[in-house]
Design brief:
Oligomer: heterodimer
Number of helices of chain A: 11
Helix content of chain A: 40-55%
Low-confidence stretches of chain B: 40-44
Distance between the termini of chain A: 34 Å
Distance between the termini of chain B: 76 Å
Strand content of chain B: under 5%
Helix content of chain B: 55-70%
Shape of chain B: rod-shaped
Radius of gyration of chain B: 23 Å
Low-confidence stretches of chain A: 2-7
Structural class of chain B: mainly alpha
Number of helices of chain B: 1
Structural class of chain A: alpha+beta
Largest interface: A-B, 31 and 24 residues
């Protein structure tokens, strides 16, 4: 949460997350090089650099696979939510690792005095019409460009400037980057190194990302169906006791946007399901210290009016709620962000 | 994510996944076989 611009806001969770990331990357690259040196020690400098190209390239691929798996994993099981918390640092580190992969590739050409060959390779236009023989390095360069764009705009400053909707749309380009990386490897090293490890890595990584997204999408599709509107457009949520205490039930408005109906003891209130920070699913969060808390990055809002507690300034749209024949109902027309709209039950439900 | 973002996400990524899956399969199917080991020199 922010009341002003700060370059980076550190806390213990972020430091632990980053430390684990750095140790993981160091272990991967260290082990890769150790095993490669043991199996087939490089005979000259270019071969040594080639090993580093492969170590950093495969590390970046594994990191991208993990980043793309975090989203659906967190939807499927809340235990993965901590991975989502600092995913932007994961992305920036992936860009750095991919950049090192490219810098070693340039060094590989340079130590052999072959940099002009790289230019020729990229500018042999006839090869762009081939499938096998396509200048695969171009795919990697475009992917690196996307990763750079995402790393450069990862700070909350850009999130505020671009608005969460545009920012989120922009960052979906990670899927394009991943697709380009898969084809960069498939049309590159996989064509001339015949170890089964490379297809296994590609098929395994790509398969994991695809299956996780399919399963998460399948489970979520029911939530997009608009709820049944009763008289006056009110949507039935359920008995008060059916809303978990300090938790929420999520209902869909006829247009399909989701509304999170929370209960905090005897108080019931409805907020948009979109966090003001990154449009995270507020309704999957909990009420902590009296505030609705987003499960993604911990942004907090008061249930009564959707306002972040002072000194923070974020506000969420609220919705009118009522009890009709013992059933909580919510009206799908959003109120102005920050409008008080919660109600109190006569008694706390069992 | 907003509904519109989810809709775009769900429409685009399966197409992308299909294209990549196809590309990966073609890349595997069309790659040249590994070079045969050099025949041992025959000595008379």
């Amino acid at each position: 949460m922010s009341v002003g611009f700060r370059a980076v806001q550190w806390n213990r969770a972020k430091l632990v997350y980053d430390a684990i990331l750095l140790v993981g990357v160091a272990l991967y690259i260290g082990l890769f090089l150790l095993i490669a040196y043991r199996i087939d020690p490089p005979k000259d400098l270019p071969a040594e650099i080639d090993l580093r190209i492969r170590a950093f390239g495969s590390c970046a691929f594994v990191m991208l696979t993990i980043i793309l798996s975090i989203g659906p994993l967190a939807r499927l099981d809340r235990r993965f939510l901590p991975l989502l918390y600092n995913r932007r640092h994961f992305g920036v580190l992936t860009f750095i690792i991919a950049s090192l992969h490219v810098s070693y590739m340039l060094e590989w050409y340079a130590v052999q005095g072959n940099l002009p060959n790289l230019i020729n390779e990229l500018m042999t236009w006839g090869d762009y019409g081939k499938f096998i023989g396509f200048p695969f390095k171009v795919l990697g360069i475009i992917a690196l460009g996307i990763l750079f764009l995402m790393a450069a705009t990862s700070h909350d400053f850009w999130l505020g400037l671009l608005t969460p909707r545009v920012w989120k749309g922009l960052h979906m380009a990670l899927y394009v980057a991943y697709a380009l990386v898969v084809m960069h490897v498939a049309l590159g090293i996989m064509q001339y190194v015949h170890t089964p490890l490379i297809p296994a890595m590609l098929i395994g990584g790509f398969g994991i990302v695809t299956v996780l997204h399919l399963v998460a999408g399948w489970r979520e599709r029911a939530g997009d169906r608009g709820g049944t509107a009763a008289d006056g457009g009110w949507i039935a949520v359920g008995a008060p006791a059916s809303i978990p205490d300090k938790g929420a039930r999520i209902v869909a408005a006829p247009g399909g946007e989701r509304i999170a109906v929370f209960r905090d003891g005897a108080e019931i209130g409805a907020l948009t399901n979109l966090c003001a920070h990154q449009a995270g699913p507020i309704g999957e969060g909990r009420i902590i210290d009296g505030c609705v808390t987003c499960p993604w990055h911990g942004y907090q809002y008061r249930l009564a009016d959707g306002c972040a507690p002072p000194p923070f300034t974020e506000k969420l749209a609220t919705y009118r709620v009522r009890i009709s024949n013992g059933v909580v109902e919510v009206h799908p027309d959003a109120l102005q962000p920050g409008t008080p709209a919660s109600i109190f039950l006569q008694a706390t439900p069992e | 994510m907003r509904r519109s973002q989810r809709t775009v996400h769900r429409a685009l990524w399966p197409l992308l996944a299909l294209a990549v899956g196809l590309g990966l399969a073609l890349g595997l199917g069309l790659r040249a076989p590994p070079a045969a080991p050099q025949a041992a020199e025959v000595t008379r």
